[in-house]
């Protein structure tokens, strides 16, 4: 059975509380949160067609070769397991790890598993190398 939006919101709020984050303080909207965790920006919530979690890896230097960055992101994503629905993206001048779950498949356990998978990728040597290559100093 598909979770309602209110159930998804409650599941995210429970996740944030378990991480020691006050959901009200981190709320950007009624169904989206942004906070700092372990030195990284972490965002997540209910989107139009899915739930999403973003974890920052690094900013991107304004002089970075964007074509090379996208090629490196594609190569790093090719090495990730497809079943996790987690990968690297560049958005708004930042390299991020993004995880998605289609709304029809969302469960409380799935949100927690997605967060863990995103953190695992963000903590990887591959993420550190990608960030170091394109980060502004």
Task: Explain what the structure shows.
There is one protein chain. The protein has helices spanning 5-18, 23-26, 66-78, 108-122, 125-134; strands at 27-29, 32-37, 40-46, 50-59, 86-91, 94-102. With 137 residues, the chain is α+β, with helices and mostly antiparallel strands. Helix 3 (66-78) runs antiparallel to helix 5. The longest helix has 15 residues, at 108-122. The model has no long low-confidence stretch (mean pLDDT 94).
Short key terms for the protein model shown above:
137 residues, 6-stranded antiparallel β-sheet, alpha+beta
SS content category: alpha+beta
- Number of E-type strands: 6
| Anisotropy-based shape | globular
Characterize the main sheet.
6 strands, antiparallel
Approximate helicity band: 40-55%
Low-confidence stretches: none
Element order, helices and strands? HHEEEEHEEHH
The N- and C-terminal alpha carbons lie at a distance of 48 Å
- Rg from Cα: 15 Å
User: If you average the pLDDT, what whole number results?
Assistant: 94
Walk across the major sheet and give the strand order.
1-2-3-4-6-5
Number of helices: 5
Residues in β-strands, percent: 25-35%
């Amino acid at each position: 059975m598909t979770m309602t939006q209110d159930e998804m919101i409650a599941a995210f709020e429970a996740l944030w509380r378990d991480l020691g984050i006050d959901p009200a303080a981190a709320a950007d909207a009624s169904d989206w949160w942004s906070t700092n965790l372990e030195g990284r920006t972490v965002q997540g919530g209910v989107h139009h067609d899915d739930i999403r979690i973003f974890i920052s890896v690094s900013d991107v230097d304004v002089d970075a070769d964007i074509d090379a960055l996208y090629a490196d992101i594609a190569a790093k994503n090719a090495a990730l397991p497809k079943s996790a629905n987690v990968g690297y993206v560049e958005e708004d001048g930042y390299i991020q790890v993004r995880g998605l779950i289609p709304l029809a498949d969302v469960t409380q356990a799935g949100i927690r598993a997605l967060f863990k998978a995103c953190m695992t990728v963000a903590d990887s040597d591959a993420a550190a190398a990608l960030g170091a290559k394109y980060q502004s100093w």
